[in-house]
Design goal:
Number of domains: 2
Number of helices: 17
Order of helices and strands: HEHHEHEEHHHHHHEHHHEHHEEEEHH
Strand content: 15-25%
Shape: globular
Distance between the termini: 24 Å
CATH topology of the largest domain: Rossmann fold
Structural class: alpha/beta
Strand order of the largest sheet: 2-3-4-1-5-6-7
Number of strands: 10
């Protein structure tokens, strides 16, 4: 046994003794953050994860489940009475109904507490009986996380970047024309401000629908009860400075208010308390949308990672106060849309796509990993004859119409550079391949007692995120 291994064993033993000594006073808590951009599958991930921790028959790669260390699992009231509860029962009922359907996506922060009775393993197992480990799952929109970058920008800096991004994106040229026609130094007109904000929001929604990831400010896409409020009634305008009481000056003031009253409280009250984090990424959707969308996803994920290393921003340095996220998992979702023969390529593309982001996290000391998963498996695999040879496909129930269909999305390259290079170079389309996506409905399930919903590598994801603490 090497010195490093011995040191690690000693460290774990000391941690175990400490846990044993403090057990009578407090139960340990893991705060697991779950985020991702729109349609990455956050709601389904949390629902399936909880269901598979309550009934662990499909979790062989989660060591504590496989060896029987988890004696019981149960839901408890969450500790924060001011945060909406994640509607686990409602979402699970939709996924397991006779005619299953997808639950509504994440539109606000929510929380759920899952408690596990775990028997300690190893040399310390005889010193205490089973103890309770609480897992507080915090669900929040990835669009909110991207707002972190706004904290370091002035209104003029943000406007310049937002106007540059709008070029060529859906709805972007229409908004750019409107912004150029606007006299930012004219006196403030509320109808004009509202018109600009509405047009800019329409552009953001269109860009998101087309597969683009960086569509900040995030609350423009998910306004909730803030819809129509002044804090969401601003938009980017060209210019570095504006006259007093002008439209541009008021836009700048509202941008600063957005950072102060929306962005900072979220990071202070919720994000800074997270111990482990999973970022769900729809890599297949970005590939289908084209090189520009894939490059935008790469940049967005690098921006997401900046949230876990609060070195530049004094505000973030204050709220973290030495805390850091210990583990971060980047999970490419919808792996069930591919035959398993292409899963290694999807994982490799995800790793390469997030290389810059992962390097930042590794530098900060966090453990990171990337894998391809499907929190709820909707397809089965098949091989068909096509063009005189075998073709690996998946079969599932179509979301529109409910018919069964075979699907082949296209061959992913073995070398991720074949996608990332043209994306970085600004290519308009893929030159030598065509990639498709299919909208599958949830499969009708018949679960055996003790089994959670079927999945792909959800147990491996849980082992990475939680295994060392169980």
């Amino acid at each position: 046994m090497g010195i490093a291994a011995i040191a690690d064993q000693i460290t774990r033993s000391v941690e175990g003794v400490t846990s044993t000594l403090t057990a009578p006073f407090t139960d340990p808590v893991i705060r697991l953050g779950v985020t991702g951009l729109s349609r990455a599958g956050k709601t389904v991930f949390i629902t399936s994860l909880v269901a598979n921790l309550l009934d662990r028959g499909r979790m062989p790669q989660l060591t504590a489940a496989a060896n029987g260390a988890i004696k019981a699992a149960f839901l408890q009231p969450q500790p924060d009475d001011t945060v909406p509860r994640f509607a686990y029962e409602t979402h699970l009922a939709r996924l397991t109904a006779p005619d299953p359907s997808w639950p509504e996506g994440t539109r606000q922060i929510s929380e759920l507490r899952l408690s596990l009775r775990v028997q300690p393993a190893g040399l310390l197992s005889g010193l205490s009986g089973p103890r309770t480990m609480h897992i507080d799952i915090v669900d929040y929109p990835g669009e909110w996380l991207l707002d972190l970058g706004l904290l370091d920008l002035t209104y003029a800096q943000w406007s310049k970047a937002a106007l540059a991004r709008a070029k060529g994106r859906p709805g972007g040229n229409a908004y750019l024309a409107l912004a150029q026609q606007t006299d930012a130094n004219a006196p403030l007109s509320e109808p004009q401000a509202a018109s600009l904000a509405t047009a800019f929001t329409a552009h953001l929604n269109a860009a998101r629908d087309a597969g683009f990831s960086d569509c900040t400010p995030g609350r423009f896409l998910l306004p909730g009860d803030l819809a129509g409020s002044p804090v969401l009634t601003f938009a980017p305008l060209p210019g570095d400075s504006f006259a007093r009481k002008s439209l541009g000056r008021e836009m700048a003031r509202r941008f600063d208010s957005y950072k102060t009253n929306i962005v900072r409280p979220f990071f202070r009250d919720h994000f800074a308390k997270i111990d482990r984090q999973i970022v769900l990424v729809d890599v297949l959707g970005a590939i289908h949308a084209g090189p520009a969308a894939l490059e935008d996803l790469r940049r967005a994920m690098a921006a997401v990672l900046s949230a876990f290393k609060p070195g530049r921003n004094a505000f973030l340095t204050r709220i973290f106060k030495g805390r850091r996220v210990e583990k971060i998992l980047f999970a490419a979702t919808k792996a069930d849309h591919l035959h398993h023969a292409q899963h290694p390529q999807l994982t490799a593309i995800t790793q390469a796509l997030l290389r810059d982001a992962r390097d930042r996290a590794d530098f900060a000391g966090a453990q990171t990993a990337a894998m391809a998963i499907a929190a709820l498996r909707t397809t089965v695999e098949d091989t068909v004859e096509h063009a005189g040879g075998p073709l690996d496909v998946v079969r599932g129930r179509l979301l529109d119409g409910g018919k069964q269909a075979a699907f082949y999305p296209g061959k992913l390259p073995d070398d991720p550079a074949h996608l990332l290079a043209p994306a970085r170079e600004g290519a308009d389309k893929w030159l030598d391949a065509d990639y498709s996506v299919m909208n599958f409905a949830p499969a009708r399930l018949t679960l055996r007692p003790g089994d959670g919903p079927p999945h792909i590598r959800l147990d491996r994801a849980a082992q990475f995120l939680l295994g060392d603490r169980l």
